[in-house]
Amino acid sequence: MDGSATARRLDISHRRILTLALPMTLSHVTTPLLGLVDATVIGRLGEAHLLGAVALGAVIFDFVFWSFGSLRMATAGLTAQATGAGNRHEVDLTLARAFLVAGVTGLLLILLQWPIATLAFSMAGASQAVTDALSTYFFIRIWAAPFTLANYVILGSTLGRGRTDLGLLLQVAINVANIVFTMALVLGFGLGIAGAAIGTALAEVLGAGLGIVVLRRLGSNPLAVTWPEVLHRAAMLQTLAMNRDIMIRNVALILAFSIFSALGARSGDVTLAANAVLYNMFLIGGYFLDGFATAAETLCGQSIGARDERSFRRAIHLSLGWSLGFGLAVSALFLIGGGFFIDFVSTNPEVRSYARDYLVFAALTPLFGAAAFAFDGIYTGATWTRSMRDLMVIAFIAYGAILLAAGDLGNTALWIALLTFLSARGLGQFILYPRLAKKTFASLS
């Protein structure tokens, strides 16, 4: 096996990078539709408290489920390496272990739904009418947790194989199903906010079912592996450790963005609104950069699996180059057309004026974050999750230090801290990766 793995040469080209990246860019653009569809349909009922409940529900579930986005990333990295090695049995074992973790975690979320709801509702601090409606939405949608997490696993497995086209197909299918189910249940059957929750949950269930069909068509059969293989101590500990590391990384990322929003809110309604408008620029840039992170994740993981160091280094150079190039292009676009974007999103004169004062900071976020996005994919594909976790924590500490030291600068300090947070992650990963790569390929020789 060693000889055949060493002899293999992967297709690492500009075309291959774009083939992998562009479908995932489109997929990421569709992701916010799950919450948007619920909000749009409920909004047509004309009840403000229902719309507020759906908006808060989307935030809560984004936080809870995205914290376990490690399932997608860890599965993708391990699957990419098994695919690169040509070991289809290990691909199925990776899938089975990830499904086991997703199922157990999803059941735990269901069992712990009351304490989770109590904490989330108290932090939301909404009116009683909103809280009552939110309670209905939450306690229905939470039952889809195992299927939502299973969808992360399925997506990770398809991406690890380099089938980002199928990843896009699955995301679109879930979103279309959500639109159909939610409109039918809310507007057709008059189920109100309960219908929105049921529709979203059913879309996740359908997505998981379709995903399993797709995996079977790809030749996977996780039921064909044996329990002793699935529960192999070393492999299971690696799966759990990777998920733990990425989860810590995700929580630190969520906290950084939450702190950004919270401190902006303390500065007044105008600052909060202006930052919200500008923050959307970072999100838009992130949709493009995430695609190249996925390409890096797939190609780097497969190169390690194939024991092809030359392909690995080429994958790093190309994915990093495309990510920086897109980051620069998107930043330039925002600097040129950011004013039009601000005017389109907000009609308030004060918000428009204030947002223009900080436009340059928001416009630079894609460029400053480009390396971090690319290296997140590289580190995930290489399964260097412990180092990725540690570097994220260091960047988070730097972020907090700047906020404490430059707090007198107000909103300027907030944006400087965010740019530092983004760039520090990429810089740390860039400095460390040659040593990690040398160690990885030395262990494979």
Can you lay out the helices and strands and say which pair or pack?
Blueprint: H1 2-7, H2 14-30, H3 33-43, H4 48-66, H5 70-84, H6 88-111, H7 113-124, H8 128-141, H9 145-160, H10 164-188, H11 192-217, H12 227-230, H13 233-266, H14 269-305, H15 309-345, H16 349-357, H17 359-381, H18 385-405, H19 411-444
Helix pairs in contact: 2-10, 2-14, 3-4, 3-10, 3-11, 4-8, 5-6, 5-9, 5-13, 5-14, 6-9, 8-11, 9-10, 9-11, 10-11, 13-14, 13-18, 13-19, 14-15, 14-16, 14-17, 15-17, 17-19, 18-19
Keywords: Membrane, Transmembrane, Transmembrane helix
InterPro entries: DinF-like (IPR044644), MATE_fam (IPR002528)
GO molecular function: antiporter activity; xenobiotic transmembrane transporter activity
Alpha-carbon Rg, integer: 22 Å
Distance between the termini: 12 Å
Q: Give the tally of β-strands.
A: 0
Low-pLDDT ranges: 1-7
Quickly count the helices: 19
User: Helix- and strand-based class?
Assistant: mainly alpha
Overall domain count:
2
Please give the largest β-sheet. Answer: none
Shape: globular
Q: Helix content range of the residues, please?
A: over 70%
Strand content: under 5%
**Which sequence of SSEs, written as H and E, runs from N to C?**
HHHHHHHHHHHHHHHHHHH
Describe the structure.
Residues 1-7 have low confidence and may be disordered. The longest helix has 37 residues, at 269-305. This protein is 86% helix and 0% strand. The protein has 19 helices and no strands. The protein has 445 residues and is an all-alpha fold. Helix 5 crosses helix 13 (233-266), helix 6 (88-111) packs antiparallel against helix 9 and helix 13 packs antiparallel against helix 19 (411-444). It has helices at 2-7, 14-30, 33-43, 48-66, 70-84, 88-111, 113-124, 128-141, 145-160, 164-188, 192-217, 227-230, 233-266, 269-305, 309-345, 349-357, 359-381, 385-405, 411-444. The two termini are 12 Å apart. It has 2 domains: 12-231, no CATH class; 242-444, Tetracycline Repressor, domain 2, CATH 1.10.357. It is found in: Membrane. Its main location: membrane. Belongs to the multi antimicrobial extrusion (MATE) (TC 2.A.66.1) family. This is MATE family efflux transporter.
